[in-house]
Each structure stands twice: as C-alpha cells, then as structure tokens.
Amino acid sequence: MPGSFVHLELNTDDTDRATAFYRELFGWNFNEWPMGDSIYWGFSPSEPPGGGVQRKPMPDAPTQWMPYISVEDVHSTVDRARSAGAEIIVDFMPIEGAGELAILRDPTGAAFGLWKSTSNGQSAAATSGEASSEASGGAAKKRGKKGGAKKAAKASGAKKAAKAGKKAGKKASKKAAKAGGEIPTPKGKKAGKKAGKKAGKKAGKKAGKGGKKKG
Question: Residues 150, 97: contact at Cβ < 8 Å?
Fold first, then answer.
C-alpha cells in the first residue's frame, strides 16, 4: 500500500552480533543472500514489513536502520519531495526484475528510501533488500563515470587519469554510504567497486591518447 513502510534495513559493522541479538530478542529467522564476499541477512517477521542486515561497505558510514516506503510512482514522489525541501541522495533507479527506488533525506536530516515493486511473487523484503544495495552501487557508478571523465580531461597522463576516476568513484560511494548507511544488497557493493574501476580505466585511456597526440 502506498505510504507504508515495506522494508527496514540495518547497516552495521558486525552482522553476526546484530543477527544474534535480534534472533534472541524477537525470534527472527534470517535467510542468507550471498553478495560477493559477504552475506546479506534477510528476515521476514510474522507481520510485515520485513528487512535485512548487511555489513557497511564504507567504514565511516553510520550504523543505522534505513526504512523504505512504498509509492505508486517514484518519479512524481521524488519531484514532490524535492519541492517540499528534501535532498535527493539517489534519484530514480530501476532494479531489473524487482522494482524502482530512490533515496532521499528529509528537511530535518533523516534518510529514507522510496520503493515501487514491479516483481511478481517475490517478497517485499527480498526485492527491497536487493534494491537497497543496488542503489548505492548504482549511485557510485553514475557519479564515478561523470566525475572520472571530468577529472581525466585535466590529467596529463594515463596513470593520473585512472587515479582520478578511481578517486571519483570512491568519493561517490562514500557519499551514498553516509546518506543512508550504504543502501539496498547483493549487487550494490560489487557494483560500486566495478563502477570506480571502470570509470578510472576509461578515463585513463582517454587521457593517454590525448597525451600522445600533444607529444
């Protein structure tokens, strides 16, 4: 139902301690969802919303819960939120086979996610969980490409350009992490790393060619 909380996600440095705590306190059962070199721990209590627990990809990101709210249209909701004074952390982003999302910060500084499910049969906890880490990875990818290309134009050699692109990708990922605790699961962390490397590599080649021509 639009306007309802559909997914709650905990980003923490210690997933083992967190899952043990909530398992003992509330009797939650956790399902393991592989995400590269770590595990996303999804849970579905007797009554929704469900959620998940994941390790923070960025060390200096806050340990916190990130709530996702269901909407009928992500685009229009983002526009209304912006007009009302919200900061857009991650703009509209489609998650293939799952749904659409955005990450915002309200005028008081609280971060939250918007979620529209487009999947059939998959639980809100599962789809929102995948979307959550996909969002931060996707944000880093978009900003990494843009930042890396821009810095590469000023770099005089391939190595400097590659370093600039990598730095831009890392900075974007760090910003997304601080905004919402490095958001939605399996693909996000891997996507963020891949985005930074790809941006740096592409920028390096471009700057290298420019250097040869000038020489």
Answer: no
Q: How many domains does the chain have?
A: 1
Residues 137 and 145 sit within 8 Å (Cβ to Cβ): no
β-bridge mates for residue 103, sequence order: 90, 113
Tens of pLDDT, residue by residue over 128-169, are: 444 444 444 444 444 444 444 444 444 444 445 445 555 554
Residue 107 · residue 86 · CB < 8 Å? yes
CATH number at residue 13: 3.10.180.10
Domain that holds residue 70: 5-214
Which residues are CB-contacts of 195 (< 8 A; sequence separation ≥ 6)? 137, 140, 141, 142, 144, 145, 169, 172, 173
pTM of the model: 0.55
